[in-house]
């Protein structure tokens, strides 16, 4: 086959290919090896599905329904391009007895529309809005696999990992946030064997690109000249987008800007010194020198004094996460959280803010009980030893891999005090001590 991403090359006999794939699927489920005729993208997906604990006789679970589904869809960025999806694909789906489906970045179906008879048939396998069709939940399928590998993909008949899905053929393409490049979800066309044609793959890819272009038009312009943007999550040295230029800050300057952005009313020299330095022997002269260097770096007019303050509002990725948490937009908050705040900083107020932000998000994730969000946190560098998150994940996704990791963490928690005195791995599993300095001030 010339293109491994196309399910059926021109001239191939669909019936013969189905028989070959069924034999290959049985071989894989029985002995774990993938015969040669199976495309590499499908073989890799089968292996990931097996590692995730998916069984060939499983089914999708419905995680969101009624009001919860409606609220989640209204909040999701792809809601803004659903009219475009319907305009470009709706008639094609209805006339061809196919389905138009859109999933989120976790493979959860948000919309399933199209021919009524086809919808009823698909409903028997829970291909319905609110059901989770992530590859890690139901194995190889076009929307779930497109999100997993971040590229357009076709899945033909018995290439599906779950047997009850094997009568279907589908093609899907991921849709990205045009500003950040993050995967927002995927658009999918599902139906019969006729969709194995290369044109269907090109079609959904073109629709996904049109959606990204439309999102770019709908997105507000970058407020470079008016509203500086501070990025401090997941990095030791923050960056500031200001006046159309991106400034990389030193660690100390990063700490100062994070704190001043947090306190638009300003901080006195004593407050700022207490917030930045553990060493009480550091003199005010040291702080004033740092502020003078920062003022020269930023340019005139941005950093004021008496008290020290930013003279214009600064948008930070920290505040984005906090706002989304406050409004209950947990998925959005998790997407915006790309890592701990200035992880190498030892400034007392930054350490406290870092813990508060991480604790607030992880508490919300545990309460939400979304297996994909919990898995994202648990497999991130900052969550790989987070015992409470792994415990929560084991409840909602009790795969052998999750149970094994949880057992290892619990064993480590028991054994480590004996090896290292009274030190033990907390990994954000305990509430941090609440500092008494520099309480966050809300306007």
UniProtKB/TrEMBL annotation:
SMART domains noted in UniProt: Trans_reg_C (SM00862)
UniProt keyword list: DNA-binding, Transcription, Transcription regulation
Region (Disordered): 417-443
Annotated GO MF terms: DNA binding
Pfam families xrefs: GAF
Domain OmpR/PhoB-type: start-end pairs: 244-310
GO BP annotation list: phosphorelay signal transduction system; regulation of DNA-templated transcription
InterPro entries registered for this protein in UniProt: GAF, GAF-like_dom_sf, OmpR/PhoB-type_DNA-bd, WH-like_DNA-bd_sf
Name of the featured protein: GAF domain-containing protein
Organism field: Streptomyces chartreusis
């Amino acid at each position: 086959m010339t293109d491994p991403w196309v399910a059926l090359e021109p001239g191939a006999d669909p019936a013969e290919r189905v028989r070959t794939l069924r034999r290959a699927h049985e071989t894989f489920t029985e002995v774990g090896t993938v015969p040669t005729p199976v495309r590499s993208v499908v073989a890799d997906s089968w292996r990931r599905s097996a590692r995730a604990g998916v069984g060939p006789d499983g089914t999708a679970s419905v995680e969101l329904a009624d009001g919860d589904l409606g609220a989640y869809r209204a909040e999701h960025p792809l809601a803004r391009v659903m009219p475009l999806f319907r305009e470009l694909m709706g008639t094609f789906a209805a006339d061809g007895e196919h389905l138009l489906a859109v999933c989120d970045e976790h493979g959860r179906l948000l919309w399933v529309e199209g021919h009524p008879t086809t919808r009823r048939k698909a409903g028997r396998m829970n291909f319905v809005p609110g059901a989770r069709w992530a590859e890690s939940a139901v194995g190889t399928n076009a929307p779930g696999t497109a999100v997993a590998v971040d590229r357009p993909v076709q899945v033909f008949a018995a290439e599906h990992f779950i047997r009850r899905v094997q009568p279907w053929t589908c093609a899907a393409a991921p849709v990205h946030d045009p500003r950040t490049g993050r995967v927002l979800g995927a658009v999918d066309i599902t139906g019969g064997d006729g969709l194995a044609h290369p044109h269907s793959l090109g079609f959904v890819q073109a629709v996904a690109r049109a959606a990204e272009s439309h999102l770019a038009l709908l997105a507000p312009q970058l407020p470079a000249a008016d509203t500086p943007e501070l990025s401090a999550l997941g990095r030791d040295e923050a960056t500031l987008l200001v006046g159309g230029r991106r400034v990389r800050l030193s660690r100390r300057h990063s700490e100062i800007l994070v704190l001043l952005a947090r306190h638009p009313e300003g901080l006195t020299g004593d407050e700022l010194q207490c917030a930045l330095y553990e060493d009480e022997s550091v003199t005010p002269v040291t702080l004033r020198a740092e502020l003078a260097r920062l003022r020269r770096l930023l340019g005139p007019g941005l950093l004021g004094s008496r008290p020290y303050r930013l003279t214009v509002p600064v948008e930070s990725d920290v505040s984005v996460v906090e706002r989304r948490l406050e409004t209950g937009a947990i998925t959005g908050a998790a997407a915006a959280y790309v890592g701990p705040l200035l992880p190498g900083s030892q400034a007392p107020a930054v350490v406290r803010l870092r813990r508060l932000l991480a604790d607030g998000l992880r508490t919300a994730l545990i309460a939400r009980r979304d297996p994909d969000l919990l898995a994202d946190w648990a497999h991130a560098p900052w969550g790989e030893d987070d015992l409470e998150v792994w415990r929560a994940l084991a409840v909602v996704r009790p795969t052998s891999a999750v149970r094994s990791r949880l057992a290892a963490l619990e064993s480590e928690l028991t054994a480590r005090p004996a090896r290292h005195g009274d030190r033990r791995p907390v990994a954000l599993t305990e509430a941090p001590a609440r500092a008494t300095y520099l309480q966050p001030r809300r306007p």
